[in-house]
Amino acid sequence: MFLVKKGLNDLTQAASHIPREIENAVENMPAISPVLGKINKIAQEMETSPRDLVKIIMLDPILTGKVLKLVNSSFYGLTQKVQTLAQAVVYLGVNTVKNLAISTALLSTVFVREKQSPLDPDEFWRHCLATALGSKLLAKLMKVDKDDLESYFIAGLLHDVGKVLLIRTDPARYAKALSESRKLGVTLAFAEAAHFGISHTQAGGLLARRWKLDPFLISVIEDHHSLVLDTDRRVQNMVVVVNNLCKATRAGESGNCVVEEMADDIVMISGLNDDMLNTAADSIPEEVEKAADFLTLIREQGDE
C-alpha cells in the first residue's frame, strides 16, 4: 500500500551555466530519425490529420517498420495483424500512433546499453515504463479524456532521459554520483550537479529542446521532481507523483534512492488521493509485466 507522505523536499538545481562537456555530449548524441521534427510539429497542432501523420512517418521506412512491429506486439493486444500505419491509426487513434512514433524514434536511439553504464539498463527503463503506465492508469482513474491518455504515457516514459546524457558523458563519474547519493542520503539530482555541474532534469531539458519536443514534454522532463499549482501542468504533476510512487514501490531502478515526501496539498495540486495511489501501486507491477515486450522490442531496435 502507498500512502501520500507529507512535505515535498525542494531539489537543489545546478547552476544555470551549462558545462562545455555537456554541450558536446548533446551534440554527439546519435542521430535520430529526420522525420521526428515534422512529427513534433504536427504534434503541437490542435487538430492532427491522420493522413498527414501517416505520410510523415512513412518518410522514414525504418521508423515505419519499428512502429508497426510495436503496434502488433502483445502490448496493444490487437486481435488481428495491422499491415499499414493507416490501419494502426484506425485501431489505436492518431495520438497513440503519433506518440508511439516519437517514443520509438527517441528510445531506439538513446536506449542505455553501454557495458560500463552504472545503471542496469533493463531496470532503468523498467522504471521509466512503470512511470509511464502508472501515469496513464491514474489519468484513467481521474477520467482524463481518452485522447489525452497517451500524453501521460510518453511523458512518464521519457522523464529520466537526461540520465542517459550524463552517463554517456562520463559513466565512471556518474557511478560516483550514484554512490554518494546513496551513502549521504541526498537526492541524485544534487549529487549529479556536484559532479557534472548539471542535474539529469536539466540535461534532459537540453535533449528535449534539441529534439524540439512538445513544450509539455519539456516541462515534464525538466521539472519531474516539482509539483506545481497550475492546471496546465497536470501531466507534469502526475509524473512527479508516479515517479515517486515507483521509487517507493521499487518498480524498476532509476538510481535515485531518495523518495521525496509529498506535500499536504497534493490532492489540490494533482487531483489524486490515497485510494487512487494505492490502486496504482497494486496494479503497476502487473502492468509492467504485461508490457515487458514493449521494452524488449525497443532494445532490439536500438541494436539494429
Q: How would you describe this protein?
A:
The chain is mostly helical and 304 residues long. It folds into 2 domains: 1-30 and 119-292, Hypothetical protein af1432; 34-110, no CATH class. The protein is 63% helix and 0% strand. The protein has 17 helices and no strands. It has helices spanning 20-27, 36-43, 50-57, 61-71, 85-92, 94-110, 121-141, 149-158, 161-169, 171-184, 188-196, 200-210, 215-223, 234-248, 266-270, 274-290, 292-302. Helix 8 (149-158) crosses helix 14 (234-248), helix 9 (161-169) crosses helix 12 (200-210) and helix 13 runs parallel beside helix 14. The radius of gyration is 18 Å and the shape is globular.
What can be said about this structure in brief?
With 304 residues, the protein is an all-alpha fold. The protein has two domains: 204 residues, Hypothetical protein af1432; 77 residues, no CATH class. Helices cover 63% and strands 0% of the residues.
What's the SSE blueprint?
Blueprint: H1 20-27, H2 36-43, H3 50-57, H4 61-71, H5 85-92, H6 94-110, H7 121-141, H8 149-158, H9 161-169, H10 171-184, H11 188-196, H12 200-210, H13 215-223, H14 234-248, H15 266-270, H16 274-290, H17 292-302
Helix pairs in contact: 1-9, 2-6, 4-6, 5-6, 6-8, 6-17, 7-8, 7-14, 7-16, 8-13, 8-14, 9-10, 9-12, 10-11, 12-13, 13-14
